[in-house]
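Reviewer 2 asked us to include a model.

Predict the structure of this chain.
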Amino acid sequence: MSRKNRRMHNPREASQLPASVGKRWMAQDSFANFEARVGYGTDNQSSAAGYQFDFISRNRVQMEAMYRSSWIVGQAVDVVAEDMTREGVEIRGELDPKTLEKLTRAEKRLGLWQGLCDTIKWSRLYGGSVGVLLIDGQNMATPLKLDTIGRGQFKGIYAMDRWLVQPSMNDLITEFGPQLGRPRYYDIVADGLALRRQRIHHSRVIRLDGVDLPYWQRLSENLWGQSVIERLFDRLIAFDSTTTGAAQLVYKAYLRAYKVEGLRDIIATGGPALEGLVKQIEMIRRFQSNEGITLMDAKDEMVTNTYTFAGLDSVLLQFGQQLSGAMQIPLVRLFGQSPAGLNSTGESDLKTYYDRIKQEQERRLMEPVSLVYDILHRSEIGKEPDDSFNLEFTPLSQLGHVERAQVSASVTTAVTSAFDAGLISEQTALQELKQSSQVTGIFTNITDDQIEAADSELPDLSELNDPNANSGSAGRGADPAAKPEPDQVKGSGDPVRAAA
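Predicted model (structure tokens):
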């Protein structure tokens, strides 16, 4: 805002101006028509609107009631957590198949991804949670030293929400790094089912927050975040009110009215007259059916009213789309239905959603998951992983077996054709095949030692023009004087590979 606008927005200066002038200057940054009461700040209904704090993240009982009773809240909490941990990670590096299989069995036995999934769930529901790294035989109040982890000491991850741990607000991390300003210790409350009254060092927990907050709001939440439900609360109320109201309309979709002459006098008189009316209505209800008839007095009248639900589905869909946008979960994943429209399948929405899940994995999970697998490697293999050891999150959108086989065949054909044509060396060909294994899952057993031992020199291209040269051994030490077999030479004289 300019200095002039700031001066005119000063309440003391504005109060010294005439009423009309003051109002005119108070709307410097937006359109307003005070005569028509159009625009913000012009004494209309929109000007009376505003925002306020709900602080429902602090109401643990309400959060739990919403999670247990509302399937929408359950989806908002569970879907993202389950998708972030559904496919796990792919282990890269110089690992022999036996070591890789041992790590895979260990992660399933210890339920690592289930522990991570629970940690993410409770962080989204309550605004924060920790996953305690269970390392047997060590004091949890001391900093974690990876070199001290022995075989079989790692026992898994135990998820605890923010209400089961008390952060050390008076002892914060002062060392420079990603943990700066966070609590140094977490004390387990007496209500916890496990690890009661124990103090845990921050290096032994995986801490996750729900929605990150600015400093002063984070301070008011004991340095935790807020629940993802807090931002959705008003949309949840609107959606549930609309769906519940629509369900109530079903009971009133078909109403019958029975007109009785002098009904008010009959009710006021009571006695035999009222009893006779009640018996008449009971007889009508008894004999009235699809094939029955309705008996009534000649002066009585039966009227039926039918309610139409036209347009109600569009209203429900709009509220559902608002929830979908607020959760950043597409309709096809949240409600299990494709979006409306010609040729709409939801695939583009899912792709965008998977990209967001990938971003959340890299931002929130990569560092803790790398620590977990480092500990797992030391506990199962008995030593620290080598420098080539790294992890990549498995994409949620994966190729099927047929697609993988097709891609693998295409890549293999392209690589071998380039190799036979003398365009790439044997070492480059092996590198390309190993790199393609990240997508196809084939050629995963090609090691770096095999790549280093392969020939890195390109074949002599002049030999490819020699009709007497064997293309299968060109550039790899073949005898130039050797003659090709008859089935290795075409009529044009161009060398080709012999059929397998």
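Residues 1-15, 20-27, 471-478, 486-500 have pLDDT under 50 and may be disordered. The longest helix spans residues 347-381. We have added this to the supplementary material.
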